Amino acid sequence: MSEIEYSEKKEDIDIKKLTILCKAVGWDRNIKKWNKILARSSFVCSAWDNDKMVGFARILEDGTMCMFYDVCVLPEYQGKGIGKKIMQKLIDKVKDKGYVSIGLFAWEENPNNFFFYEKLGFEKVDTGMELVKYIVRE
Question: Could you read off the pLDDT of 56-67 as tens digits, one per residue?
Answer without folding.
Answer: 999 999 999 999
